[in-house]
Design a protein that fits this description.
602 residues; alpha+beta; Porin; 2 domains; 20-stranded antiparallel sheet; two-stranded antiparallel sheet; 2 helices; rod-shaped
Length: 602
């Protein structure tokens, strides 16, 4: 603003000077010497010119500034437009970025899940691969054309037995041969060590769309060639224990055939062929405990599952007659009978024994049977415990000859029995309480002591003997490695006597004809070339055998490499015979200790 005032003042001064100069030049004048006034005027003029020049420069600068300002404004407008576009783009980009961020978050979550699934899948694959490798290196079963083969159930055993009185029987106890004091063996204890109970087993199993097929073989060395028979365990050497085939259908039906545990034997659950499912006493003694109901013999059975809690079955099993027992010589005059053959040397049965065309036929081994044994059974598993009921039907046949009348006839009589069992877990399933019993006529073969099935009447026909078997058991799983067991049971055969036409008695447990007067002491009276003489005054028939047993099994190791275990058993056994004198029924007492050391294949 000051600069403008100065410029305006200078212009006014210049205008006045110019006007005065113009007036003075209207008439010529003579040149005069330059005065001080003139000098000052020249200086002012020069200053005005300088100011003009400065003004022009300032105008030029102002125009440049205006141009620069306009250019700047234009640039600002352009920048604002660009800024608005950028802001709009940024908004759109913000939404895109937000959507992208959401997508990225979702992708991260999905990726995390996928990564976790991949990790889990990899772990599973590695585990399966490890399992496969382990299976290939250490298979639980062998595979052959779609069939699995397993040796489970096989073991090697080193076992011993000590008895207070010698029976000469290795580790199985012959319960009906426990000696009385009159026998030489009664006065000698015995010790035996053996590996004959070592076992070989093989299971084959093939699955189809309609069910499962199985075949099983199990054998040991507890047999002798000259006495092998089919009385109870069908123990032909190399001793077959069980050999059977089975088909289990998906609809609950099952069929099986071969040598197997009798259907009358107690199962752990349902009705099973498998040896591991049979509730045998845990004894080291392979003859188990009196009162245990069982056989191992040929059978063909059909079973049916009714839901999950009931199974019913029917079986046809191989027959055999134990006995006849008792005093058999006092049949009526002229009567003889035959019921069995000795083994044929041209066949596969044992040739021991004598012909049975006489009235004393008990020495032979193979009954000429009319029918198989028939067994029906139902098993119940209601959720707590296992329960069974069963029935047995048997036929006994002999051919009777009468020389007085020159006649002959065939006689068939029927016997049978009923039985039941109950097994209940208590104390958080660590204790198992069991009770099993069977009562019948002619069912002595199914009792553990195998006393006798029948006797003979004076007319030469058979009479089934009453029998009772019962066993109480307690099995305690004390620890995962230690199991303890206790059993008490017995087998009983009833007395059955007859009087023949000559007034003599015969049958089973006959007073007078059988004498027990010498059972209590060793016979030291010289009786010919042999001293001491045989104790012929102890000929009574067995009435009952009872035994109490206590034992344990301890597993040193039980795992994928098998099982290493040690066992101990103590048993106290009594054998009673029917009284032949009033009030006199002596008992034989036996005590035994068994040990076992076994390795089981896994």
């Amino acid at each position: 603003m000051n600069m403008s005032k100065r410029v305006l003042s200078a212009l006014l001064l210049a205008a006045s000077v110019v006007a005065g100069q113009a007036q003075s030049t209207t008439a010529p004048k003579k040149e005069k010497p330059e005065t001080e006034e003139q000098k000052r005027l020249d200086q002012v003029t020069e200053q005005m010119l300088q100011l003009q020049r400065q003004l022009d420069a300032m105008k030029e600068q102002l125009q440049q500034a205006k141009d620069a300002s306009a250019a700047a404004q234009a640039r600002a407008d352009e920048a604002e437009k660009k800024s608005d576009a950028v802001q709009q783009g940024l908004g759109e980009n913000s939404q895109a970025v937000s959507g992208l961020q959401t997508s990225v978050s979702d992708l991260k979550a999905s990726t995390s899940v996928i990564v976790q699934q991949a990790a889990d899948g990899q772990k599973k694959i590695l585990a399966e691969q490890k399992k496969t490798n382990e299976t290939l290196d250490h298979p639980d079963v062998l595979h052959y054309k779609g069939v699995t083969l397993s040796p489970a159930g096989s073991y090697v055993a080193g076992e011993t037995v000590w008895r207070a009185h010698s029976t000469g029987a290795d580790i199985p106890t012959p319960f009906t041969s426990i000696p009385f004091p009159q026998a030489e063996g009664y006065h000698l204890s015995e010790f035996d060590g053996t590996s004959r109970q070592s076992r070989i087993a093989l299971m084959g199993e093939g699955k189809t769309t309609w069910g499962t097929m199985r075949g099983y073989w199990e054998a040991d060395w507890l047999g002798t060639g000259i006495t092998s028979n089919n009385n109870q365990s069908n123990s032909y050497v190399f001793r077959q224990r069980v050999i059977w085939g089975q088909a289990l259908l998906n609809n609950g039906w099952g069929v099986a055939g071969g040598q197997m545990w009798s259907l009358a034997t107690e199962d752990a659950k349902g009705l099973s062929n498998l040896s591991g499912d049979i509730l045998t006493p845990q004894t080291i003694d392979p003859n188990y405990n009196p009162g245990f109901v069982w056989t191992r013999q040929y059978g063909f059975r059909v079973t049916r599952n009714i839901g999950d809690k009931v199974v019913v079955g029917v079986a046809l099993e191989n027959p055999q007659v134990l006995g006849p027992g008792g005093t058999l010589g006092n049949v009526n005059p002229g009567i003889t009978y035959i019921y069995a053959n000795p083994g044929s040397s041209s066949g596969l049965t044992n040739t021991g024994g004598t012909d049975t065309t006489g009235s004393l036929g008990q020495a032979t081994q193979y009954a000429i049977s009319k029918t198989p044994d028939f067994i029906v059974k139902a098993a119940f598993d209601p959720g707590v415990g296992h329960y069974e009921i069963f029935g047995i039907g048997r036929s006994f046949r002999d051919r009777v000859y009468n020389s007085t009348t020159s006649s002959a006839f065939t006689s068939t009589v029927w016997g049978g029995g009923i039985g039941a069992s109950a097994r209940v877990p208590v104390a958080k399933k660590k204790l198992s309480l069991g009770l099993k019993g069977m009562y019948g006529s002619g069912t002595g073969r199914y009792g553990d002591s195998t006393i006798a099935d029948v006797t003979v009447k004076p007319d030469g026909t058979f009479e089934p003997l009453k029998s009772l078997s019962a066993l109480a058991s307690l099995d305690w799983a004390a620890t995962p490695r230690l199991s303890v067991y206790a059993y008490y049971g017995g087998d009983y055969i009833g007395r059955m006597t007859y009087q023949n036409t000559a007034g003599k008695y015969q049958g089973y447990g006959v007073p007078g004809s059988e004498t027990n007067s010498g059972c209590g002491s060793e016979n030291l009276t010289p009786g010919g070339p042999t001293f001491p003489s045989s104790g012929a005054s102890c000929t009574g028939t067995t009435r009952d055998v009872q035994e109490g047993t206590l034992g344990y099994w301890f597993d040193f190791y039980r795992g994928p490499k098998g099982r290493l275990r040690q066992g101990f058993q103590y048993s106290y056994t009594t054998r009673g015979i029917w009284a032949t004198l009033p009030g006199y029924a002596p008992k034989a007492i036996e005590q035994g200790i068994w040990t076992s050391f076994r390795y089981y294949l896994p």
